């Protein structure tokens, strides 16, 4: 079955299967009057000018077409919400103060433990539908609100089931080390042993996660504890990711480089030595500007990272606490306005580099022969337009593996 998208006013895509860093981050392919030919869901040819014949023709009516967006960092699986924390924030309580008082991740953990697999599935499916409408076709989802073996496995099973039955491609990350839960507060070591010696073997046995993540942060997991968790993950075939330098720079980004993490997340207060370590270790910086916005924090030094040769990806961080937002188009706006990245650099950050951050660049993140036919036809004439407009959903038609799934 051949499907062609024709009359593309502007086709904008990064190219390749590896992360784009330094000046290459902004070096993308732009074609005018273009077309994309797909065969059985896979891109067969991309070109400009007269279009070849196909069984099905989708007319882009002169609009912008990009690869389907890739959201490389979400905490998709959680029970409840935390709107009660808004008032606390407005009265000056900080994120860590709320967490230390038993709110934050612990309160979502209580709600997640109380939820059935079916309830979690239905709730997450609703979020997935919404993300697909915003133009996201591939994403990562973490566990981390179970914090007990049965509930961490429950969350990962939900992700696996959704990946099987929803058009979205979802890759799973095990994040048992998101917080030491209340019942282990007096014995942190015992919780870390539980994560490494009980949860991880089961995760591996069931084959339900590809990555291991840890919240390396003040009052959460120290650098040494984080190293212990990520090294244990490696033994079980889980590639390391790390929440680093979100609130305090305690050494997480340095660890990311040392351990060869596939990506480091947040990096809001990343110091120069952290950037250098990530550059040496070939780590993708996965930046989450909507979280900075929501926490009222500063913004990660994205330009310094690009200058140092660290590939920059951007993601939503969708979660019920620090970022109850799954709109990657808002992240695109923030990438330009707050990181001062160019539209070309931003596009790479939410497509190819994001795909690299979750080891999906062989299938997703760019429009070129051999990759999946995942693309977005925008209600926009060009790339600048989607970076400049704000607050509307400009994604018009979403195509996943050659099939129209939205629009
Ligand atoms: O990425 N920082 C740790 N995890 C999430 C927040 C989790 C929560 O507040 O529920 C984040 O910001
Ligand atoms: Fe996160």
Descriptive account of the structure:
With 407 residues, the chain is an alpha/beta fold. Helix content is 37%, strand content 23%. The strands form two sheets. Strands 1, 2, 3, 4, 5, 14, 15 and 16 form an eight-stranded mixed β-sheet that branches. Helix 8 (252-259) runs parallel beside helix 9 (272-281). The longest helix has 19 residues, at 188-206. Fe (iii) ion (FE) binds at residues 73, 75, 243, 265, 317, 319.
Helix-strand blueprint:
Elements: E1 2-13, E2 29-39, E3 42-48, E4 56-59, E5 64-67, E6 69-71, H1 84-90, H2 95-100, H3 104-114, H4 117-133, E7 136-142, H5 149-165, E8 169-177, H6 188-206, E9 211-214, H7 223-235, E10 239-244, H8 252-259, E11 263-266, H9 272-281, E12 284-287, H10 289-295, H11 302-307, E13 312-314, H12 328-337, H13 343-349, H14 352-357, E14 375-378, H15 383-388, E15 395-400, E16 403-406
Parallel strand pairs: 1-4, 1-5, 6-7, 7-8, 8-9, 9-10, 10-11, 11-12, 12-13
Antiparallel strand pairs: 1-2, 2-3, 5-14, 14-15, 15-16
Counting DSSP E segments of at least 2 residues, the number of strands comes to: 16
What gross morphology would you assign?
Answer: globular
* Strand percent estimate: 15-25%
- Which cofactor or ligand species appear? N-(iminomethyl)-L-glutamic acid, fe (iii) ion
The number of distinct helices, counting runs of at least 4 residues, comes to 15
Distance between the termini: 20 Å
Estimate percent helicity. Answer: 25-40%
Given as residue ranges, the uncertain stretches (5+ residues, pLDDT < 50) are: none
Mean pLDDT across the residues is: 98
Structural class: alpha/beta
Summarize the biggest pleated sheet. Answer: 8 strands, mixed
Rg calculated over all Cα atoms: 20 Å
């Amino acid at each position: 079955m051949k499907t062609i998208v024709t009359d593309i006013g502007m086709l904008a895509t990064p190219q390749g299967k590896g992360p784009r860093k330094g000046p290459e981050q902004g070096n993308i392919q732009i074609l005018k009057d273009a077309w994309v030919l797909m065969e059985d869901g896979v891109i067969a040819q991309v070109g400009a000018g007269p279009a070849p014949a196909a069984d099905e023709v989708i007319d882009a009516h002169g609009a912008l077409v990009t690869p389907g967006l890739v959201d490389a960092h979400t905490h998709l699986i959680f029970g409840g919400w935390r709107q009660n924390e808004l008032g606390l924030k407005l009265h000056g309580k900080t994120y860590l103060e709320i967490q230390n008082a038993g709110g934050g991740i612990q309160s979502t953990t209580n709600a997640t433990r109380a939820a059935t697999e079916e309830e979690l599935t239905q709730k997450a499916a609703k979020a997935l539908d919404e993300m697909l409408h915003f133009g996201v076709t591939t994403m990562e989802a973490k566990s981390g609100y179970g914090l007990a073996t049965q509930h961490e496995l429950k969350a990962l099973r939900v992700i696996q089931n959704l990946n099987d039955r929803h058009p979205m491609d979802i890759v799973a990350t095990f994040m048992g080390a998101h917080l030491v839960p209340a019942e282990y507060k007096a014995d942190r070591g015992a919780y870390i042993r539980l994560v490494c010696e009980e949860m991880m073997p089961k995760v591996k046995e069931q084959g339900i996660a590809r990555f291991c993540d840890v919240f390396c942060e003040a009052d959460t997991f120290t650098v040494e504890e984080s190293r212990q968790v990520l090294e244990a993950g490696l033994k079980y075939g889980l590639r390391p990711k790390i929440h680093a330098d979100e609130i305090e720079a305690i050494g997480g980004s340095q660890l990311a480089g040392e351990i060869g993490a596939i990506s480091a997340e947040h990096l809001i207060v990343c110091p120069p030595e952290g950037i250098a370590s990530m550059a040496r270790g070939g780590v993708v910086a996965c930046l989450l500007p909507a979280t900075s916005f929501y926490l009222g924090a500063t913004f990660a030094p994205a330009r310094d990272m690009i200058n140092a040769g660290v590939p920059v990806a951007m993601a939503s961080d969708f979660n019920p606490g620090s970022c109850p937002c799954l709109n990657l188009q808002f992240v695109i706006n923030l990438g330009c306005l707050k990181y001062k990245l160019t539209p070309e650099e931003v596009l790479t950050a939410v497509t190819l580099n994001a795909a690299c951050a979750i080891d999906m660049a062989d299938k997703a993140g760019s429009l070129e022969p051999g990759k999946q036919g995942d693309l977005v036809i925008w209600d926009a004439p060009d790339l600048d337009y989607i970076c400049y407009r704000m607050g509307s959903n400009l994604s018009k038609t979403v195509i996943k593996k050659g099939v129209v799934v939205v629009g």
